[in-house]
Amino acid sequence: MSADDGSDKYPEESGRRRFVKGVVGGATLVGVGGVGVAGVNSATSSSGAGGGTTQSWAIENTGGPAPRGMPMIPIEVDDSGNLRGVWPEVQEVNQGGLTVQIAETENYKGSGTTYTQEWFQYCGVESYTGLQPTYESDNLFRVSSNPAYSWQGEAYEEGDPLNIDDFGDYETWNNEFGTPQGKPATATWRSQGAESTIPVQVIRSKTVERLVSGEGEISDAARSWLQAATDQGVVAWLNKCTHFCCVPGWKQTADAAKFGDADEVYCQCHQSLYDPFSVVQTLFTARPRPQ
Fold first, then answer.
1. 267 exposure class (CB count in 10 Å sphere: 0-12, 13-18, 19+)
2. Which residues pair with 161 in a beta bridge?
3. Which of 13, 125, 169, 284 has its CA 20 to 30 A from that of 71?
4. What tens-digit pLDDT sequence spans the chain (291 residues)?
5. Which of 277, 271, 275, 235 is nearest to 253 (CA)?
């Protein structure tokens, strides 16, 4: 449970993992996959009002106890070069006789994917101010007071937006962990003026560019999503481990190599691993939104 949640009023996610094949809940799931990987993974738990079964695109969980991948955040580079996480379209719907506001975009940029706020409704994040559909935000990825990478401390002040120009050396950047595969950054999203911050991990990589352009073993559905959700080789996700809600890191510690791969996203708490360049579709039960 997230430290920001502070209560047990939302149902806990189960630690069980099941692999979904064929028909699930009356809807047939198409096969999807990442680099050399195909499949849909799922965590089960009880549903509640405002939550329920949802599918999201995620970076794949490849090891450790985490039940599924971490959900991706579609990004755009604006005219000033700033990186912006796209928020779904806010609309009013009738649920149980009540008119409520939700954030949801069907067929996001022609990808065939319904992108919704429910992707981020786990680990207590569903109660964060920034997940309210109408929370006023410019949606820029902004540097926190304690960024994970030294280059960020040299390039930015707290609150500055990440800018594509500062990733110019992404083809050669590397620290002492792993091999050069891109340039990372940490940031917060939809968190200005809020007590609870939404942590984000970002990578600009030639691998992402190659996948988008048609190279690599990846399903058509996954490629279509990447083409819609990335910009100039930048990929981003909500950086909350789906196991016990810790904040993982890519190339932040040498311990990653001890538990699988120095080039994967590693959670120090319980050694879960994620592949930032393997995109999978996950099926899980989003927690209910606060009433």
1. buried
2. 142
3. 169
4. 444 444 433 333 433 232 222 222 222 233 333 443 333 443 433 333 578 899 999 999 999 999 999 999 999 999 999 999 999 999 998 877 888 889 999 999 999 999 999 999 999 999 999 999 989 999 999 999 999 999 999 999 999 999 999 999 999 999 999 999 999 999 999 999 999 999 999 999 999 999 999 999 999 999 999 999 999 999 999 999 999 999 999 999 999 999 989 999 999 999 999 999 999 999 999 998 776
5. 271
Helices (H), the chain: 150-155, 206-213, 220-229, 255-258
Question: In sequence order, what DSSP letters do the residues of 135-180 get, joined into one string?
Answer: -----B-B--SS-SSHHHHHH--TTPBPBGGGGTTTTT---SSS--
Residues in CB range of 106: below 8 A, 6 or more apart: 114
For residues 85 and 126, what is the distance between their CA atoms, to the nearest angstrom?
Answer: 17
CA distance 139 to 211: 25
Three-state DSSP class for 237? strand
Check: CB of residue 196 under 8 Å from CB of residue 130.
yes
